[in-house]
Amino acid sequence: MPLPLAHGLVGAGIIAALHPQPLRHRGLPLLFGAILANCADLDFGLVLLTHDKSWHRGFTHSLAFSLLLTVTALAVWGGAHLWRVSAYGACYASHGLLDYSTTKLGGGVELLWPAARGRYGLGLWGLSELPSRLPPAEVLRWLGVEFLIFAPPLLALLLLRRSRAKTPRRPA
Q1: pLDDT tens digits for 17-54?
Q2: Fewer CB within 10 Å: C terminus or N terminus of the chain?
Q3: Count of other CB atoms within 10 angstroms of residue 120
Q4: Are 37 and 92 a contacting pair, CB within 8 Å?
């Protein structure tokens, strides 16, 4: 289970790659993508309300739930914003996919809910798994690892977008 830093960097990276317009608003789209990429963990509210840890990494981490949220947003904002809403929907979906990809010990995620209630994890590599059981120094170490893994691709995407925005277009 990656920490919020990794999810946020991935979400911001998705916006840097897919956002249909230049990122003129001084990082607001990136920030919104980072926040959306962490929203699947709002299921901790269900854990607190019910005192049942099985809610975590459940339906809020599924691809179907992220698709439902994206379709709902499209219904609210309309098809004129298809690319923007789809990019933000991808940010939300990235959470479950990142948890799936980096789960070795934690029991997996309900990625295929409601079609399958099983929990799935790739099982190859556990990235900062079970952070609640780690001492603070170890959490800081994992934050550094996540930053070193996920910040460079985001920076590369931002630099690429900036260089493409400054390149003059040739008339057709």
Answers
A1: 987 666 666 689 999 999 999 999 999 999 999 999 89
A2: C
A3: 16
A4: yes
